[in-house]
Amino acid sequence: SSAASDVYKRQMMHGEYGIEDVCLSTLTILGPNGIQGKLPMRMKKEEIEKLKDSLTLKNGDTVTAGGVQYRVTDAAAKTAEAYGTAKKNIKTINVTATVTIKDVTCKVTAIADQAFAGQKKATKAVIGANVTKIGKKAFYGDSRLKSITVKGKKLKMVGKQALKGINKHAVVRVPKAKKKAYKALFKGCLLYTSPSPRDYAAS
After folding, report:
1. Bigger pLDDT: 60 or 55?
2. pTM for the full predicted model
3. Using an 8 Å Cβ cutoff, are 111 and 81 in contact?
4. Most distant CA pair in the chain: distance in Å?
5. Residue 131: its pLDDT value, please?
């Protein structure tokens, strides 16, 4: 009957957790006088494995949060990188310290090569506290990008041409304790220290 069919449909998975048409609960049999019985459904081995796999964090798993795209770089270490944006017209690029992927909190430790290149409308970027590496051409050609804030003290590497082509009046705000170290990383940029801005030219 149509009523029975409706119950059947409600008991099926349709795309949730990345799986299709896997029954996870007991089907209810309806008759003229209501519920006539239940039909237990057993999942096949491959269905069980597919379900487990859909819930397990793996390298390469992705998520979009706050308009920024992230992917897992090391599932065992629970680390991820920012590798792009969902849209091209984003004005503020906010790379968070952590991101949740498949209910697992991962530290965002890197910005991938060319991650935000060509973001012509971006004016502001915030780099999370756990980022240790900014990839090559990460912000390449972002001509309106005027403000970059580095929240963390763990940054070790800024790739070639990472900031090439950003606004000529752009400033980079960094933690005061890392002023000297970050001066070498952001050569040619005007740096400020936070929270009390004091600018100096990096040569």
Report:
1. 60
2. 0.73
3. yes
4. 84
5. 98
**Long-range contacts, stretch 45-48, CB < 8 angstroms, 24+ apart:** 47/19, 47/22
What pLDDT was estimated at residue 196? 43
If DSSP codes are grouped into helix, strand and coil, which group holds residue 155?
Answer: coil
What stretches of the chain adopt beta strand conformation (E)?
12-14, 20-23, 27-31, 34-39, 62-65, 68-74, 79-85, 92-95, 98-101, 104-111, 124-127, 133-134, 147-150, 157-158, 171-175, 190-194, 200-201
Q: How far apart are CA 8 and CA 2, in angstroms?
A: 10
Q: Count the alpha carbons within 13 Å of 130 in the hemisphere toward its beta carbon.
A: 16
- CA–centroid distance for 2 within its chain: 43
Peptide bond between residue 40 and the one before it cis (omega within 30 degrees of 0): no
Number of neighbours of residue 53 by Cβ within 10 angstroms = 12
Is beta strand 98-101 parallel, antiparallel or unpaired with respect to 104-111? antiparallel
More confident residue, 4 or 88: 88
